[in-house]
Amino acid sequence: MNMAFLSVKHKSLLSLLLLLLYLTCLSQSANSSSTGPSINTTATSSGSSNVTSLKGVPGCGKGLHPVYRYLCDRRAAWGIVLETLASSGFLFSMGLLLGLLLWSLWICVSSKTQRSSIGGTVACMSMFLFATAGIFGLTFAFIIRLTSQTCPTRIFLFSVLFSLAFSCLLARCLALLGFAAARGWGEPAVALGLFAVQVIISTQWLILVLVRDKRPCEYSQEEFVMLQIYVLCLLAISFILSMHFLCRSCSTYSYNYTGPTNQQGRQQAAMVFLTLLLSAGIWVVWITMLTRGNPKLDRRPKWDDPVLSIVLVANGWALLMGHGLSQVSFLCRGEAKAQELPLSFAGWTSPSADIPGLRSPKEGRENGSFESDGENRRGRRTDASLRSPYESGFSMTDIDPDKDYTIPRPEANYREPSDEYSQED
């Protein structure tokens, strides 16, 4: 009887524990289904991957993937602000590029008799504006979280787009300095040659990591900075050349007639120098923050993507306003002056040229130091106050035509021998 009582008692305790466990599970499920931001994970048909969706994030839809959270999360305002600035910069860059291409096409069609030499400059500026638009577009890859799809895009396009922009700036500096290899169509050729080096470096890194080693696309902050060494070299060389040209143009003075051209070249050098100075400052700041600042502030990796996104937007606007817009305005202004009609110097070579305001042939009546005293007589002004200070006291009217004003010339005696002087000695 005692054993039966104990068994019944144990069964009742076990059932009570099961009831308490069931009630606990129900309370936890009720708490998880309450309002507030959460991530719901459901298995896909493949079984190995999961599809997540956001719920309760202000500004985002319920079925949005969490990697796109910062594109719409109002609590993380940096994503929305950078997204707006990047979109406006991309549209402005593409609009400026389209306007430049249409303007150059109109110049080529309108100047049929005069051959225009702006093809190389337009091509280099088109590549620069395309790189600037790509920098703005790349910002979205850093606002979106790091995934296996965004990692190759970040690694490849970050260095490639900046190398194209800085290569165009370096080619512009060489053209301003007068290098023969960077004149005309040589300017875009030099830019493409410098740009191809970084393309090879980035492609080689992706092939070694993804294809040969078959590793996932992962990178550390130091490794990401090391991939930008060539871009830093392009930035440093461009900055030194622009500063050299600016110092040379400000310290020298030309006495030939190149005033407007020299002034425009000085303005271009100043804008290129300012653009590269801002870019150098931005790169020093983001490299310091990514490698030293964020670890010391204990913000790694939370601040890594916002720092790189801010770098892309800030440097993109510096490139666009400092060199893109100013260079296009310089190009349009210089070509408009070149399209003006040249001065006609026909009056200097042909006395019968039909020049307004001039009479041909000239009779000398335009000279104020003479006046008509009759129909066919000219003489000096009788009023001393009206005479020119360069007018002489002698007048052509004082010459008597009946007198002989010829100057006597010495005559040589050819009849005497020339050695007579030696006999007298």
- The N- to C-terminal Cα distance equals 184 Å
CATH class of the domain at 89-253 and 260-338: Mainly Alpha
- Segments where pLDDT lies below 50 for 5+ residues? 1-10, 19-51, 254-259, 340-356, 369-378
Total of helices: 11
Corresponding CATH superfamily of the domain at 89-253 and 260-338: Rhodopsin 7-helix transmembrane proteins
CATH architectural category of the domain at 89-253 and 260-338: Up-down Bundle
Which strand order do you get reading across the main beta sheet? 1-2
Query: Main sheet?
Result: 2 strands, antiparallel
- Secondary structure category: mainly alpha
Give a description of the structure.
With 425 residues, the protein is mainly alpha-helical. The chain has a domain at 89-253 and 260-338: Rhopdopsin 7-helix transmembrane proteins, CATH 1.20.1070.10. It has helices at residues 2-32, 77-110, 119-143, 150-177, 186-212, 221-226, 229-251, 259-296, 304-338, 346-349, 420-424; strands at 38-43, 50-55, 370-372, 378-380. Strands 1-2 form a two-stranded antiparallel ribbon. The chain has a two-stranded antiparallel sheet with strand order 3-4. A hairpin with a 5-residue loop joins β3 (370-372) and β4 (378-380). α4 packs antiparallel against α5 and α4 packs parallel to α7.
